[in-house]
Amino acid sequence: MSATPILEVKDLKKHFVIQGNAVKAVDGISLHVMPGETLSLVGESGCGKSTVGRAILRLVDLTGGEVVLDGQRIDRLSTTALRPIRQRMQVVFQDPFSSLNPRMRVGDILAEPIRNFGLAEDAADLEARIARLLDTVSLPKDASGRLPHEFSGGQRQRIGIARALAAEPSVIICDEAVSALDVSVKAQIVNLLQDLQRELGLALLFISHDLAIVEHMTHRIAVMYLGKIVEVATRERAFMSPKHPYTYALLSAVPVPEPGRARTRIVLKGDVPSPMNPPKGCRFHTRCPFTFERCRTEEPKLRSVAPGQEAACHLHDLPATENPLPSRAHERAQPWCQ
Ligand code: SF4
Predict the structure, then answer these.
(1) Nearest residue (CA) to ligand 1, atom 5
(2) Which of the residues 26, 147, 245, 275 could staple to 48 if both were Cys, CB 3.0 to 4.6 A apart?
(3) What does the pLDDT look like over 223-257, one tens digit per residue?
(4) What does R_g of the chain's alpha carbons equal in angstroms?
């Protein structure tokens, strides 16, 4: 992988005003994705992760911060200036049915981005590109002449991926792209995304609440809670030794490959507080089993706590012997970490 991020987000903020109150849906997050890398952005629903995706894509305007694509700041560009940028950054949404025009044949759906971005040399090249795209996502040639409703959910998501690929992007944002699919279809789509990533060097920002899927396909993981990132780590570090109690709690809810194995669970109490009125100090302190006095008054900063791992938690200022956060190494025996 190259040492320069293909996508960088710096101190991104997105606040909404609802009934006169500011809702800080995203409250100053920074992240980066390297070429050919998958970064998964995870958290419970309502944590702000999908808003991050939409802000990066400029589907909503930013309240503050920067978005940099391949070295170019794009968050202040006009709609016209954004056009070529949209070619380089595509999206696959959760619901392939509502994101595909039901009256357009698949061939036309795929032809649209190719025409919009002037990628085909002539009509024969356009047809060849459509045929290649269908082949890439393992759809039959005759799919071109059919309408979206003639396909299953998994096949429609393949059409959505083919449409994203048609633009020849360097980054694809997958916003809960496999959440609506059956387990076996999920695995097929994730495998397809991984194959395409290896083949085309794509960077993926994979927004998901499904940690079981994330574990199998990500390089790094960024965990969001109430509009903030609380932990960023490589997959190995995050799943073997999470350094934030919230990450630990999310991972404790993921089924383990060997159900008989001893497990230490952190069960989350209560609901996510309202982003209209987030708790003072550490935003997680109302649900954290390790809360101590400092957590109620002082907001922890995201900082390096181990090689390849950052966390925002005061526990890391305690002597190691007094840090109550358990390791998960004994309960994880993953093929990728042996
Ligand atoms: Fe829990 Fe305190 Fe760490 Fe927040 S700072 S996660 S409340 S221990």
Answers:
(1) 313
(2) 26
(3) 999 999 999 999 999 999 999 999 999 998 887 66
(4) 21
Strands 38-42 and 203-208: parallel
Establish whether residue 315 lines the binding site of ligand 1, counting it when its CB lies within 6 angstroms of any ligand atom.
yes
Please give the sequence-ordered ranges of beta strands (E in DSSP) within the chain, or none if there are none: 7-18, 21-33, 38-42, 64-69, 72-73, 89-92, 171-175, 203-208, 220-225, 228-234, 303-306, 309-311
Instruction: Of 171, 179, 157, give the one whose Cα is nearest residue 204.
Output: 171
pTM listed for this prediction: 0.91
| Cβ 266 vs Cβ 254: under 8 Å | no
Atom nearest to 288 CA in ligand 1: 1
The two three-digit tokens of residue 132, written as one number: 């290649």
The SS3 assignment for 15 reads: strand
From 230, 246, 284, the mutation candidate for ligand 1 (largest count of ligand atoms within 8 A of CB) is 284
Q: Is the CB of 295 under 6 A from ligand 1?
A: yes
